[in-house]
Design brief:
This protein is an all-alpha fold and 290 residues long. Helix content is 78%, strand content 0%. The longest helix has 27 residues.
Length: 290
């Protein structure tokens, strides 16, 4: 398969992953404050762990998921859980649009980590694609009112930290996906996620009805499907290709807002979405020109 075709396949996998995660990340909005963030996350991880365990048993045994690099799986879980906690805290202490404006630096950090640690080659065309996507993402969050008020320094630093943590998790996903099976990666991150988030979830635990519990647990299988798509995409193409594709989250979030919450984007947000799509199209072909 040519480099261009592999990039297109990888981008499609990550696009599907991003669409699924958009629904998952909107769980707190669907719950409308009835349940805390950590409680949602730990129930999601429990649902994911049960789902992956069932898949492992169906396809063999747990012996197939023994890893020679459990520390890397643990570090991936730490980065992922810490990133979720950091962006959640930052969003609570600064305008959501401002937190998003800083968080979208994730894509650029991902490219830089790929260059530094994986020795990925990035062409001028590739940097142009990354910058076009970043400009589109910036236009979207600016249209939502970002950077129009004075920001507190510490919450802004935490939002920037979340972007670095997300990019670091992406680096480990890329590394692990070259040697570990998707089931193995999902089993480890689900198990470690429960351990890492268990105490914070207990501290903020709210007594909720069975329908809401079942709904949060159902996020587990959906998350497993989204992680599988992420792993497939990150296995196929370099970080410098798949990382910036996550900017499409802003587009999927707008579509979800229109379809479910009646939130219609401004013309600026629409124009930004066009730039994000343009950058993604350029990313899909740029490595063919290297």
């Amino acid at each position: 398969m040519s480099s261009s075709n592999r990039n297109v396949e990888a981008i499609l996998w990550v696009l599907l992953s991003t669409a699924l995660f958009t629904v998952i990340f909107a769980a707190a909005k669907f719950a409308d404050g009835a349940i805390g963030t950590f409680q949602i996350l730990v129930l999601r991880y429990v649902g994911g762990f049960v789902t992956v365990s069932w898949l492992v048993v169906r396809t063999g045994s747990f012996n197939q998921c023994r890893s020679n690099v459990p520390l890397q799986h643990f570090m991936r879980a730490i980065f992922g859980c810490s990133a979720a906690a950091a962006i959640t805290w930052a969003t609570a202490h600064m305008p959501v649009a401002d937190a998003s404006a800083i968080g979208i630096l994730y894509g650029v950090v991902t490219v830089l980590l790929g260059i530094l640690f994986l020795k990925e080659r990035v062409s001028v065309w590739h940097w142009l694609a990354v910058l076009v996507s970043l400009a589109g993402a910036s236009l979207v969050v600016t249209a939502q009112g970002a950077l129009q008020s004075q920001m507190a320094a510490f919450p802004a630093m935490i939002a920037l930290l979340s972007a670095v943590l997300m990019a670091s998790e992406g680096l480990l996903i890329r590394t692990l996906s070259q040697t570990e099976s998707a089931l193995c990666m999902m089993l480890y991150v689900s198990g470690f996620g429960i351990l890492l988030l268990g105490v914070p979830a207990i501290l903020e635990w709210n007594n909720i009805g069975a329908p809401l519990v079942i709904g949060c647990l159902a996020l587990g299988p959906l998350s497993v499907a989204a992680q599988y798509c992420t792993i497939r995409g990150y296995r196929i193409a370099p970080l410098s290709v798949v990382g910036p594709v996550d900017y499409s989250w802003l587009i999927f979030a707008m579509l979800l807002g229109i379809a479910v919450f009646g939130e219609y984007p401004s013309m600026g947000a629409f124009a930004g979405s066009i730039l994000i799509v343009s950058g993604g199209l350029l990313l899909s072909t740029t490595h063919a020109q290297d």
